[in-house]
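Running log. JK asked me to keep both predictions on one page so they can be read side by side. First protein, sequence followed by its tokens:
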Amino acid sequence: MLPETIVPKSFKELEIYPDREERHDDREYRHAHHILVNVEKHPCFWCGKTKEEAEAEGNTLETHHWAEQSLWHKFDQALVYKDLKWLDFHGHAKDLPDNSADLHANHIANLVVSCSTCHRENGYGLHGATIPFVWARRWLKNKSDDVLKRWKPLHVHVKNALFKVARKKGSIN
């Protein structure tokens, strides 16, 4: 029997990315990443880890496209522009172009610093968790609390278990 504070839920989510050109980190993206991580030294927006703290754990600080790069051609740029101006993650909304039509996915205002765990860890990172869990990580009093990691979706636990079994059997390296 589960405690009252744990409410089982299940849902099926399909993550489909449209056909697109191969992702490219152009000069502007690399420059914006450098400014945010190395010059302005922003920590992970979600957990607050600095570059040094992330590296000590064997991770890195990355930059996440708030308006997903792979979906950019499907977005109403005026709406993205309006939201980036409002969210202003790190003070670069002032650098947005005057015309929303001139906005592009790799603009510094569309990037948010994220450690590799908060960005991509399956079932926990931005690319594998539901929005309430993504934002909850930012608001935790104790950033080392692993409460969110313990409640990964069931498919993540199953996938990890299958991976371990396959590794033991020598099916994968």
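And the second, directly underneath as requested:
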Amino acid sequence: MSEIRIVRDYPYPRAKVWRALTDPELIPLWTATGAGARPEGFAPTPGTRFRFVAKPKPGWNGIVNCEVLEAREPSLLRYTWTDDGGGDDTEVAYRLEAVGDGTRFTYEHTGFTGVGGLFMAQMLGRIRRRMLTTGLPAVLADLDDDGGLRPGSALQTRS
């Protein structure tokens, strides 16, 4: 079985990191450095069924179906992840812990099986590393203390 595990430290409090990871308006801003997925129907509430919708690519319709399994603000979000076109039923977990004045974010995506799963884990791992190294830090830097984008931010939310 293959998995993705990425650990990043951010110099921001957990509440701010949680907001960037779970606010449906902010998620597409940091996923833009990957496939640019936006959540439809997402809320960090167990039982919520939602989907990520990205621009389709050859061999992929751009849709991933998910269900929130567990949410404990501001420390844990777990949800299922199933490609709309088939493939493994996998699970994603966001774990946030306070480290000094900042936050340690551990991203885990587990449940990939077989050769196809190994390929998918490698491909998604590269994309997630870029999103968590480039995309998420840019969003965090542009959030004010109330969790909104700072005036003049180059980042734009979709209304």
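Observation for JK regarding the second prediction: The chain has one domain: 2-142.
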